[in-house]
Design goal:
Blueprint (H helix, E strand, L loop, with lengths): L11 E3 L8 E6 L2 E10 L6 H18 L3 E11 L5 H17 L3 E9 L4 E10 L15 E4 L5 H9 L9 H8 L3 H10 L3 E4 L4 H12 L3 E5 L9 H6 L5 H9 L4 E3 L5 H8 L7 E5 L1 H14 L4 E7 L3 E5 L2
Parallel strand pairs: 4-5, 9-13, 10-13
Antiparallel strand pairs: 1-2, 2-3, 3-6, 4-6, 7-11, 7-12, 8-11, 9-12
This protein binds cobalt (II) ion (2 copies).
The site of one cobalt (II) ion has 5 residues, from strand 3.
Length: 317
Amino acid sequence: MGGMPHFVHPRLLIGNETNDDAGVFLLTDELALIQTVDFFTPMVDDPYLFGAIAAANALSDIYAMGGIPLTALNIAAFPVCEDKSLFARVLQGGADKVREAGAILLGGHTITDEEPKYGLAVTGTAHPSQIIANANAAEGDLLFLTKPLGVGIITTALKAGALKEAEIMPVLLSMAALNDIAARVMVKCGVNGGTDVTGFGLLGHVYELAAASSLAAELWMKLIPFHPGAEELARQEIVPGGAYRNLQYMQNKVRFADQIAEYQRLLLADPQTSGGLLMSVPKPLAGHVEGELENAGVDYAIIGKMRTGYGIDVLPA
Ligand code: CO
Ligand code: CO
């Protein structure tokens, strides 16, 4: 978060300098506290689904750090005039997702606002040695991604009326899916680094991982998974403003091979909501991680690798 004042404390393990998913504070030698907050405006009409997606998204930042969520607080804004039962459905969707994560809701706070907003502040824990940060990726690591991309583009088409919610239910369910199992594999196998792919798009989050680790990354376009329809929509320039802004922000940090078309560049910059985990896996461990993900029924793709240098190179394959 730009402009945020900087704190230094002997027990502060991860603050805001490395753009990590959550802050980490050492409670005891055996226990680290992980805290995060996220909330946003609806991207779907179904209030229950919106609540579930917003909660899964907020919980994901605990998983991305290698933690287990324990407690959550609702953060909500809702218009005065709106039907109260809609709001109850949002909260129910969020609460069911918190329960699915094995955590509990302690309460929360709601204000009135013209535009509805919902999300969670989540507290989790991990053993300090199992925290998975951005900063420890190593040269030669393979990059694993556990959810397909393109949800920003697809929900933009939904808002524009080019798609119906029922048509994209698999995409919405992917957004509502917890990253809990993928995170368990990540911790069990002891990967070097990890994050989740959210608002800055794949390019932005790969860059954060690489920059925090003083490395560069290479992405292999052909191997990057997208939800069905996303590539076609991007070709038709049905793309959210955030993708253009992300791409603009990355312009001096990414080098695209000539074969990578403009629509593909936008796909890589598409802001994700509740995206998958991005893991930096030591090459000798990759086969083990693949086996564990397959056994756990988690879809994944190996989309690139870390190497020395600065920024990101996007290659055709
Ligand atoms: Co995150
Ligand atoms: Co976040």
